[in-house]
C-alpha cells in the first residue's frame, strides 16, 4: 500500500498523540479494566473465571475476545503496566484504521482530517492506556466496514464475529451485513452471516450453561419493566442530550463543555450527521456505514447506562457521516473543528498530570490493605475495590430481608463491607433504576447497629467500612 509522505506524517503524529496521554487513568478506575485483565490471566491458565473471587465463578460478564488477545501478556508479567501499554498501542492504531477506511470513500485530505479529529478527541485520549474494550471493538468495526465496502463476505463475517466476541454491543452494527443479502443467493451470503451466528451462539450457550442468562441482555431488566414505553422515551431523550453534549463539548473549553453551548454544538453536528446518512442511503440503500451508524445510535438511545467512552466506537461513523453531510464544505469545516478541539481541549492537557492518576478512595484502600489476617470484601463495585485494596471479593448478595442480608454475608465469611456515597452508576436518566435502589437499600441496612458495626471512616472520600456482627 502506497502511503503519501504527508499522510504518513499525520498518521504518525496521531499515534504519538494517543500514546502521549497514556496512561490516562489509574488501573481499576472503571472496574471493567480489572475484569479484562483477570479474564486474560484466567484464560492463560486454561480457565475463564473470576480469579479474585472465592470459588472462581464463571466470567460471564465480559466477552472473551479482548481477554484472549491480552492473555499472552500474562505469561510475561504479573503487573499491569504491560497491559496498559498494549492497550495504548491498540488505541493508537484506530486513527490509521479510520483513515484507511475513509480514503476509499472520500478524498485523502478529508480522511486525514477525520483521523486527526479522532486522535485528538478528549473522549479518545481519556481512555488511552486503559485496559478497556473500546479500542479493539472499534478496530473490528472498521474491519467490518472495509470488508463490506469491498464486497468480501467472509472477511466481513469474521470481523462481525470478532466484534460480537469483544462486546455484545456489536449486534447494533450487524445491519452493515445487509449489503451481502440483496441480489445474492443464501449460499453466497452464508460466509458473511455464519461466523457471527456461530461465534455469538457459542458464547451465549456457554454463558447460559453457567448462569442461565446472557449478561448484557439480562441487564435490560434493570432499565425497563412496567411502564416501559414511557421510560424508553425518557431514557432516549436523556441519552440524546448526554451524547450530543459530550461530542459538542469536545470543541469547547472545559469550562463550557458541560453547558448549553456544548449541547447546541453537538445537536448541530448531529443534524449534519443525519443529513449525511440520508444522502448515503439515497445513493446506496444498503450502505454499510449508514446502516451500522443507525443501528449503533438506536442501541445507545435505549441503553440505560450513559458513559462518554461509549462514543469512541461511534466516532468514526459520526465523522464519516459529518463529512458526507457537509459535502464540499467538509474539508474547511473539519479543519475548523480540529483547530477548536486542539486549542480548547487537547493541547492544554498535553503533558499535564491526569486528573485520574490516583484512586479516589486511596486512603480507604490503604487502610483495608493494612488489615491483619485474611479478609473478604464486598461492595457495590467489588472487583475494583477488591483489586485496589488487595482483597478477595464477592458481590453484594441479593436478599429481601435485612436479617437475611446480614446472614448471607456471614455465611459467605465476608469481613468488610465498603460503602461509598455518591457512586456514579452511569444511570443519569433513571433515578429509580434497580441498581441504584439496591445499593441505597444496602446503605440503609448498614446503618442498623444490630446487624453491622462501622469500623472505619474516610469522610473526605465519602467512604465507610462496616463489618457484620
Q: Would you write up a description of this structure?
A:
57% of the residues lie in helices and 5% in strands. The protein is mainly α and 469 residues long. Strands 2-1-3-5-4 form a 5-stranded mixed beta sheet, sandwiched between helices. β4 and β5 form a beta hairpin. The protein starts with a helix and ends with a strand. The mean pLDDT is 93.
Task: Name some characteristics of this structure.
five-stranded mixed beta sheet, mainly alpha, globular, 5 strands, 469 residues
Q: Summed up, what is this model?
A:
With 469 residues, the protein is mainly alpha-helical. The chain contains 19 helices and 5 strands.
List the helices and strands and how they pair.
Elements: H1 5-20, H2 32-44, H3 65-74, H4 81-102, H5 108-119, H6 122-125, H7 134-150, H8 153-166, H9 186-211, H10 215-218, H11 228-248, H12 260-283, H13 288-302, H14 315-326, H15 330-349, H16 362-369, E1 377-379, H17 382-389, E2 393-395, H18 402-411, E3 416-420, H19 434-446, E4 452-458, E5 463-468
Parallel strand pairs: 1-2, 1-3
Antiparallel strand pairs: 3-5, 4-5
Amino acid at each position: 500500500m502506497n502511503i503519501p509522505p504527508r499522510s504518513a506524517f499525520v498518521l504518525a503524529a496521531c499515534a504519538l498523540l494517543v500514546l502521549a496521554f497514556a496512561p490516562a487513568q489509574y488501573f481499576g478506575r472503571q472496574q471493567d479494566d480489572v475484569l479484562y485483565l483477570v479474564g486474560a490471566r484466567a484464560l492463560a491458565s486454561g480457565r475463564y473465571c473470576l480469579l479474585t473471587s472465592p470459588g472462581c465463578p464463571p466470567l460471564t460478564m465480559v466477552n472473551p475476545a479482548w481477554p484472549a488477545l491480552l492473555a499472552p501478556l500474562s505469561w510475561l508479567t504479573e503487573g499491569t503496566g504491560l497491559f496498559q501499554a498494549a492497550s495504548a498501542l491498540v488505541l493508537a492504531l484506530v486513527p490509521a484504521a479510520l483513515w484507511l477506511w475513509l480514503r476509499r470513500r472520500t478524498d485523502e485530505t478529508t480522511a486525514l482530517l477525520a483521523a486527526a479529529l479522532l486522535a485528538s478527541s478528549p473522549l479518545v485520549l481519556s481512555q488511552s492506556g486503559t485496559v478497556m474494550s473500546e479500542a479493539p471493538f472499534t478496530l473490528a468495526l472498521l474491519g467490518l466496514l472495509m470488508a463490506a465496502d469491498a464486497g468480501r463476505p467472509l472477511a466481513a463475517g469474521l470481523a462481525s464475529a470478532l466484534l460480537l466476541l469483544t462486546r455484545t454491543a456489536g449486534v447494533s452494527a450487524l445491519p452493515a451485513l445487509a449489503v451481502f443479502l440483496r441480489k445474492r443467493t443464501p449460499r453466497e451470503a452464508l460466509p458473511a452471516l455464519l461466523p457471527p451466528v456461530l461465534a455469538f451462539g457459542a458464547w451465549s450457550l456457554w454463558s447460559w450453561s453457567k448462569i442461565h442468562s446472557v449478561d448484557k441482555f439480562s441487564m435490560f431488566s434493570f432499565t425497563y419493566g412496567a411502564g416501559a414505553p414511557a421510560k424508553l422515551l425518557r431514557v432516549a431523550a436523556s441519552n440524546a442530550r448526554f451524547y450530543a453534549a459530550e461530542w459538542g463539548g469536545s470543541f469547547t473549553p472545559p469550562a463550557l463543555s458541560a453547558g448549553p453551548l456544548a449541547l447546541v454544538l453537538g445537536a448541530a453536528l448531529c443534524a449534519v450527521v443525519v443529513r449525511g446518512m440520508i444522502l448515503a442511503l439515497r445513493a446506496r440503500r444498503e450502505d454499510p456505514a449508514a446502516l451500522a451508524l443507525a443501528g449503533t445510535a438506536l442501541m445507545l438511545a435505549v441503553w440505560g447506562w450513559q458513559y462518554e467512552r461509549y462514543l469512541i466506537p461511534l466516532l468514526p461513523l459520526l465523522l464519516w457521516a459529518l463529512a458526507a453531510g457537509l459535502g464540499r464544505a467538509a474539508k474547511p469545516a473539519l479543519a475548523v473543528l480540529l483547530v477548536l478541539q486542539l486549542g480548547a481541549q487537547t493541547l492544554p492537557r498535553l503533558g499535564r498530570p491526569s486528573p485520574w492518576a490516583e484512586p479516589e478512595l486511596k486512603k480507604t484502600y490503604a487502610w483495608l490493605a493494612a488489615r491483619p489476617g485474611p479478609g473478604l470484601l464486598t461492595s457495590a463495585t467489588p472487583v475494583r475495590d477488591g483489586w485496589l485494596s488487595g482483597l478477595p471479593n464477592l458481590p453484594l448478595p441479593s436478599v429481601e430481608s435485612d436479617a437475611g442480608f446480614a446472614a448471607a454475608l456471614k455465611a459467605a465469611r465476608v469481613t468488610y463491607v465498603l460503602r461509598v456515597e455518591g457512586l456514579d452508576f452511569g444511570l443519569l436518566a433513571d433515578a429509580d433504576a434497580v441498581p441504584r435502589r439496591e445499593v441505597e437499600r444496602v446503605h440503609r441496612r448498614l446503618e442498623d447497629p444490630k446487624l453491622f458495626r462501622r469500623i472505619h471512616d474516610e469522610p473526605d472520600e465519602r467512604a465507610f467500612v462496616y463489618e457484620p456482627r
